[in-house]
């Protein structure tokens, strides 16, 4: 493996873990995107958790990784990411509970700091449940589609695996994080599910050319290395 391949491999893992952690601490803010038309359930605006964009990037990274390095390697990355959620919780709560200066000497009020970061606890619990199911499902479907198409139609396994696993992820995440922990009503929860899933599906469609670009880059580097004469 060349140094360029090493950079791509480490970069994909770094993107996966970074996007995963960012999604946990940004999920409690609700976003609203106006639409030029009306959709069933959501009306004229998509309402979704702030984590949607960051979390969608984890599926891009895992699909690239699965295509390049295989199912077992991708599963390892997914499970390491799962463990990092517990590290996030431990670090957040150790900071919240650690002694600090009086409130008047702090740049951020300790109560506000706790309210914002502690809100991520329910989100992380919901994310853990959704994550362990959807990410492993994504890797499984990705490789099933790859086997059934004899390695062809990368676009199909990228979009198909992400579309299926993201739907499962969204339902579990909203159900636990917003309905169970925050008492959001079912109609509002359904709106969140639809809004988040529509954005995730759109990202899955838009990121397909980038998946091709990453895979082609690594494949071309491997071909160049194979064609290069051996150093005596």
Structural write-up:
With 232 residues, the chain is mainly alpha-helical. The protein has a single domain, classed as Arp2/3 complex 21 kDa subunit ARPC3 (Orthogonal Bundle). Helix content is 75%, strand content 7%. It has 8 helices and 2 strands; from the N terminus they run H-E-E-H-H-H-H-H-H-H. It has a two-stranded antiparallel sheet. Helix 1 packs antiparallel against helix 2 and helix 1 crosses helix 3. The longest helix is centred in the middle third of the chain and has 29 residues. It is globular. The chain starts with a helix and ends in a 5-residue tail after the last helix. The model has no long low-confidence stretch (mean pLDDT 84).
Give the secondary structure arrangement, pairings included.
Blueprint: H1 3-26, E1 30-39, E2 43-49, H2 52-69, H3 71-97, H4 110-118, H5 120-148, H6 154-180, H7 186-206, H8 208-227
Antiparallel strand pairs: 1-2
- Helix-strand makeup class: mainly alpha
Share in β-strands: 5-15%
Query: Would you list the SSEs in sequence order as H and E?
Result: HEEHHHHHHH
* Distance between the amino and carboxyl termini: 18 Å
Low-confidence stretches: none
In short:
The chain is mainly alpha-helical.
Fill in the keyword field for this structure:
mainly alpha; 8 helices; 232 residues; two-stranded antiparallel ribbon; single chain; globular; Arp2/3 complex 21 kDa subunit ARPC3
């Amino acid at each position: 493996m060349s140094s360029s391949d090493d950079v791509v491999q480490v970069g994909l893992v770094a993107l996966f873990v970074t996007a995963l952690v960012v999604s946990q601490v940004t999920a409690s803010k609700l976003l609203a995107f106006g639409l030029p038309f009306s959709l069933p359930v959501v009306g004229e605006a998509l309402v979704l958790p702030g984590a949607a964009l960051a979390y969608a990037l984890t599926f891009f990274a895992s699909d690239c990784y699965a295509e390049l390095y295989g199912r077992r390697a991708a599963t390892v990355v997914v499970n390491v990411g799962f463990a990092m959620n517990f590290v996030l919780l431990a670090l957040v709560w150790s900071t919240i509970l650690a002694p600090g200066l009086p409130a008047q000497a702090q740049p951020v009020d300790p109560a506000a700091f706790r309210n914002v970061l502690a809100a991520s606890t329910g989100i992380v619990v919901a994310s853990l449940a959704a994550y362990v199911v959807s990410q492993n499902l994504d890797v499984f479907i990705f490789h099933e589609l790859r086997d059934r198409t004899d390695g062809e139609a990368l676009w199909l396994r990228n979009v198909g695996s992400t579309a299926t696993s993201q739907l499962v992820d969204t339902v579990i995440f909203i159900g636990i994080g917003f309905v169970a922990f925050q008492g959001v009503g079912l109609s509002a929860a359904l709106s969140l599910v639809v809004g988040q899933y529509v954005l995730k599906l759109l990202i899955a469609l838009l990121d397909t050319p980038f998946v091709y670009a990453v895979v082609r880059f690594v494949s071309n580097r491997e071909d160049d290395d194979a064609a290069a004469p051996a150093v005596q």
